[in-house]
Amino acid sequence: MPHWHQDRSIQFVTFHLADSLPASARKELQCVKDRFIEVNPEPWSETIRAQFNSMFPSFINDYLDAGYGSCCLKRKECATIMSNTIDYFDGERYMIHSYVIMPNHVHILVELNGSHSLSSICKSWKNYSALHINRLLGQSGKLWHHESWDRLIRNERHYENVVNYIEKNIRQGGVIWR
Fold it and tell me: I need a labelling partner for 69 at 20 to 30 A (CA). Which of 46, 51, 130, 156 fits?
């Protein structure tokens, strides 16, 4: 998936634990992607690119919401580590508008301040939280899936839809939110 970076933009980001998508879902996702590319060879028009990019978040979110994997973020101590990690550079490297930490994934509405890329921010969140969550759980290894999904907020309506989506997740099992 392409990752967009635009200074001073507001973006909706989702990332999940490494074990939260079962192998069957990963295989199905790859097949859907391969079929789409086979039917729609590149270069793509903006319409085709938008269609491709819109296919995957709902597919992945359906699996994440089903609660696969260890769901270690349902433990308050683990969710607090994640929350503190997100909040640490709020107002300095970025501005957090809202977030929710679910049992096996995180949704964040974040505004970039221009000094750091979204990919470097996500990498920092994942690395720091993985170190401390793994230490708390007495484990080592990969905690987060390598990929994150991000969407530029296009307009006020899109922003409100994302805020509503985060609030819906808060009501449906959010562990920590802001």
Answer: 51
Of 32-46, 77-91, 132-146, least confident by mean pLDDT is: 32-46
Distance CA 98, CA 113 (A): 16
The phi and psi torsions of 108 (rounded to 5 degrees) equal -135, 135
Q: Residue 70's Cα: distance from chain center in Å?
A: 17
pLDDT digits (tens, 9 = 90+) for 65-74: 878 899 999 9
Distances (CA, A) of 118 to 8, 76, 83, 135: 11, 26, 17, 26
Which H/E stretch holds residue 39?
A: helix 23-39
